Amino acid sequence: MDGSPGAYSPHEARALFRDGLRTPTAGWCTGRTQANLIAVPRDYAYEVLLFAQRNPKPCPVLDVSEPGATSTTVFDGDLRTDLPAYRVYVDGKYADEVDDVREHWRDDLVAFLIGCSFTFEDALAAAGVPIRHVEQGRNVPMYRTDRACRSAGDLAGPLVVSMRPVAPDLVATAVRVTSRYPAVHGAPVHVGDPSALGIDDLDRPDFGDPVEIPDGELPVFWACGVTPQAAVMASRPPLAICHAPGHMAITDGHDTELVVP
Amino acid sequence: MDGSPGAYSPHEARALFRDGLRTPTAGWCTGRTQANLIAVPRDYAYEVLLFAQRNPKPCPVLDVSEPGATSTTVFDGDLRTDLPAYRVYVDGKYADEVDDVREHWRDDLVAFLIGCSFTFEDALAAAGVPIRHVEQGRNVPMYRTDRACRSAGDLAGPLVVSMRPVAPDLVATAVRVTSRYPAVHGAPVHVGDPSALGIDDLDRPDFGDPVEIPDGELPVFWACGVTPQAAVMASRPPLAICHAPGHMAITDGHDTELVVP
């Protein structure tokens, strides 16, 4: 690779991934919006979209493809090849991780691109809030809570949250900054007390890695994009295609477009 | 009626409408969110929801019912009787205006409650921005623009905007206040030049009434909830049930819940 990943355009990055580069996308294409991918058959699309409408914090939809289309308005690439890695689910069960899903794609697949916390982590860092899991070289820890999402047809499940430790004097900044990004999970759902969310042990996340909480910092919880993915898989669609964790869709959108005043 | 309409609870107001009172709902149930109603058969619901996702400014969805249900999470009344008046459309054509749609209701109807500008007009007035069409006792003027919405399947059409005159020294206030209400059309789409939107004559609105623009005030344009209604009717669903203009669904939600920081 020439240059730093942050300097690539989305077009350039997607070409590298299409040609076989397999890498997590954190830090790539600075300022461009990265997204979660969930593609399901058209018969399941209404429930996914309705689940998102009813649960906008964990499930902020950035764009929806036409059935069978391989690009969307905000993703001017090929959804089947231009992510660095994919996971394929059959009947809701994990079947395979691949870097090209052309052989799995169907004409009735509808792709949902869903906002990702990379966007607000960049904004937090720019506002002077350290991102501890990045400093520690780990994936963000995620937890199932005891809060149920509003269901939509067969789609149901608990709210899943991500956790980032924040110093008490920066909690207000963290709330203020992320509140302005409703399209990427928005303000925290909870500050300070894991047990109030039904989380017994911060050291044992349900997804991702545990993160060390520096002395005096508070655990702050945001709605997480794993929520809709878990709900969709529990409904057992015959086929679902998702990005592999951390290997996101790099869209042509700019993070700045997601800020509300 | 006892007392002022603003003092009624949503429960009380809906009971009066159910018992036959037929009145525009502007000024009723202060602080409670009023909504546009569009109910269509389940087969059309995905396209309506997708059109809304693709055009959030003119089509901010507050809630979606289960098929056939007569209430929703934010509307704890009977959608068939508890609005003061309804319009029934058959094959996309206006068929009847009634105050009870029980005989038209179907088990497969999905009701969409869509944000309404009453919410942000209250916020504008509270911030000291006069609402000229209210002062003049008229309906807000609405115009078809030359801007196309993003289509969703068969749903397509132009962006429809409402216009409110605002004094130059209050334009910034009007932008700032309405920006904070993305669930009710948000910030203006345009300030000052009707021709840039393809509007030839402000005195001849496509919907509503012309409003007199006080000397020196600028026409300010917001996305309008008529946009999705026009697109839905153009797609000719076999049945659609809407609120009659100005005779809104009074929900149990609070306007304050729609504010973003």
Automatic annotation (TrEMBL), chains A, B:
Q: What Gene3D superfamilies does the record tag this protein with?
A: PSTPO5379-like, PSTPO5379-like domain
Give a Pfam family name.
Answer: D-Glu_cyclase
Q: Which InterPro entries match?
A: D-Glu_cyclase (IPR009906), Putative_hydro-lyase (IPR038021), UPF0317 (IPR016938)
Identify the domain of life. Bacteria
EC number(s) for this protein?
4.2.1.-
Sorted alphabetically, the keyword list is:
Lyase
Query: PANTHER family, from UniProt?
Result: D-GLUTAMATE CYCLASE, MITOCHONDRIAL
The record's similarity note reads: Belongs to the D-glutamate cyclase family.
- Report what the protein is called: Putative hydro-lyase QRT03_27695
Organism, as annotated: Actinomycetospora termitidis
Lineage at the top is: Bacteria, Bacillati, Actinomycetota, Actinomycetes, Pseudonocardiales
